[in-house]
Every structure is written in C-alpha cells, then in structure tokens.
Task: structure prediction
Amino acid sequence: MWRIDRTADYGAFQGAARGRVDLARIERHWEDILRIIGSIHTGAVRAYDVIRMLSRDGRPTPLGDAIAHYGRIAKTLHILRLADEPGYRRQIKVQANLQEGRHALARKIFHGRAGHLYQRYQDGMEDLLTELPGV
Result:
C-alpha cells in the first residue's frame, strides 16, 4: 500500500503503507494523462502503442511514472475497501466464482475433460473414428 503523507499515522496499517505517492508528479502530467485516456477511449490510439510509449529501455518515462503513481492511489483504495466492506468482498468473490466456472467449462469443452475417459473402453472403439465423415 502507498501513502501520500509520510508523517501521517495510519494506525494498524502503518507498517503496510510504506510506499509513497508523489502527487506533484501526477499534477505535472495531469493534462497528458487525460489526453491519453481520451485518445484510448475514442480509439485514436491503441492501448498497446501507449504502453510502448510510456517506457524506454525497460524504464518508465516521466509520464509513465506519473500514471503509475496515480494507479497506486486506486490500488490502495481497493485494498482498504476490501479489508473494510464485507459486501465488497462478497461482490469480488461472486466475480471470482463466475470466472472459475467459466474456466471449468472451458477445460471440460476444450481440453477433453483433462484426459480422463468417462466411458469404458470396448474392443473396436478405435474403428468408430474411421466411420466419421471427414476422417
């Protein structure tokens, strides 16, 4: 988790909130951040191209660093909300369960039930494959 004020007392989260968000960096690049968001939203530029633009030689540009600091605010708020609101935790769990259900269905459909045979093998079963059209 990240904090804005280094001198503030975060109580039980004092040890967890070690990182620092630099609001000055975000303010310096705020207009550019909004321009990028608008460009992606309108489709004027692809997100892939923006990501490439925000780093050079594996290191973030000043604009990329400002966006990272802004993202830390949202991430910290999400973690705090997750810790504080049971309803929010339930909502997250429902979404996770939905995704797991989709993954289970995909495994069943696309991966042949994980290689398990659910019918007993009988002599001559392999001959049935040659009778299928197109095989």
Notes: Residues 86-110 form the longest helix (25 residues). The radius of gyration is 25 Å. The chain has a mean pLDDT of 83.
